[in-house]
Structure formats: C-alpha cells, structure tokens
Amino acid sequence: MNGIPFADLQVQEIIERQSKNLAREGPREKPQFHPKFLAEAYERCRTFVQNMPRPSIQFVVKFKHCLDAGTLLMTKERQKATWAIYVWCRRTDELVNGPNAGHMSSAVLNGWEDRLQDIFNGRPYDMLDAALTDTVFKFPLDVKSFRDMIEGMRMDTGKCRYKNFQELYLYCYYVAGTVGLMSVPVMGIAPESPVSTQTIYNAAL
After folding, report:
1. Could you give the CA distance from residue 146 to residue 157 in angstroms, rounded to a whole number?
2. Class for domain 13-20+32-204, per CATH?
3. In the chain, domain spans
4. pTM of the prediction?
C-alpha cells in the first residue's frame, strides 16, 4: 500500500465517467420492478436511515439529523437515491464494525463485492439492494467508488494504525471520499453553476 500513486486509484476516470453519464456497468435495459415493490424497497431504506443502530453514540445521532435535514432539500427521487446509497454504505461498514464483525473474513468481503456487481447488473439480492439497483439505473453512479469502499473495509481488517500520512490519506479516500463520489451524481450540478465539475468533486472528496 505504501508508495501507491493516488493516480492509480483512477478517481479522475470515475469523475469523467459519471460526468458523461457513462458510469453504470451491466445491462442497458433497466430491470422491471413492480411499483409497489419499489416503493416498499425505498420505504425500508428510509426506515433504516431513521432507525440507525447505536443511537447512543453522539456523533451518530448528529449525523442522522444532518442526513434527515439534508434530504429534505432534495427532490423525492434524489431523496430516495440518497437513502439507498447510505443504506448500502452502512451495511458495508457493519460487516467489519458491526456486532458480527468477529465473523469477518476475506471470503465475506469477496461475496459482498460479488453481490455489489449483481446490484449493478440488475439482479438485487433483497429489497434494500433493489432500491440501489433502481438508483444506479437512474443516476450515473460508477461501480468503482463502491468497490473502493469495500477495499477500505479490507484495510480495516488488516490494520488499525498507519505509519505515514499517505497511508492514512489513502484509507480516508476508501472509507469516506468514496461517499462523496457516490453522492455528487445524485445531488447533481446545476448547468448554470459557475463552479467547475472538477472543483465540486474535489470538495466532495
């Protein structure tokens, strides 16, 4: 990990693909979900966000309120997409930091990454996955930012201290910067914005 050029993360490629609506991998035809099923899938995501575990931790409570308040400023479609992304990120984090973290193995993370690819290929495993599948067909989300977050979970299982700032910066990108990459396509950039796309992504990272 030490000495890996940040250019090798291919962040710029992710930005370019998302900006040109070329991000999503998998079949071109959108999977057909029954409207009631999809509504229930997003409702479960919303409930998941509003009933996050470990509410006694102060920063989690504050983040929950920030997320709730922030999504109120979005359109309904953007709200739902944000819930779906958040739920996937939270479930990913719970693999290594949740109550069952003691059972974590590389095989579990490999299986989760395979499941992620199924989501992008239009084959969700459960209702929460279905909400994300619908989201990635509506917004130009690049699968690599999701894979990179899983890579951050692999780093969590391997070490808890970093010997230099470069290693720490890389870890921060994997577990936090990736969320910024996922969020920008959903939040959108106003066509009349005087700020460049690159500047907005830099702020998100």
Report:
1. 17
2. mainly alpha
3. 13-20+32-204
4. 0.85
